[in-house]
């Protein structure tokens, strides 16, 4: 069964940090380019970051460049998103995505608020 399961979301104060994880199963993870997206309340889902299949290249949305880091562990089939210096506007449900097959996880909620 093809599956992506996100975890690691929660409530954090502005300026704080969180690391999201996405566990992949049912497909060849090390052959797959991956991405993170997010959807704020009442807004469309938006791109956050992507990474090539072996992690040699990454790309970020302007809004998170320099604060977020996407990475992966192909031995464990896990995708990560390290989020630093969080802002209230980072509040959203975060989704991981397998780009070629367009596979999505169920999402994990991140709230940056005091």
Compact summary:
With 114 residues, the chain is mainly beta. The protein contains no helices and eleven strands. 0% of the residues lie in helices and 51% in strands.
Describe this protein's structure.
With 114 residues, the chain is mainly beta. 0% of the residues lie in helices and 51% in strands. It contains no helices and eleven strands. The strands form two sheets. Strands 2, 4, 5, 6, 9, 10 and 11 form a seven-stranded mixed beta sheet that branches. Strands 1-3-8-7 form a four-stranded antiparallel beta sheet, with no helix packed on it. A hairpin with a 5-residue loop joins strand 4 and strand 5. The model has no long low-confidence stretch (mean pLDDT 97).
Write the layout of secondary structure elements.
Elements: E1 3-7, E2 10-12, E3 18-25, E4 34-39, E5 45-51, E6 58-60, E7 68-73, E8 78-83, E9 92-98, E10 103-104, E11 108-112
Parallel strand pairs: 2-11
Antiparallel strand pairs: 1-3, 3-8, 4-5, 4-9, 5-6, 7-8, 9-10, 9-11
Fill in the keyword field for this structure.
four-stranded antiparallel β-sheet; globular; mainly beta; 0% helix; 114 residues
- Seen as an oligomer or otherwise, the chain set is single chain
Beta-strand portion reads over 45%
Mean pLDDT: 97
The stretches of 5 or more residues where confidence is low (pLDDT under 50) are none
The DSSP helix count reads 0
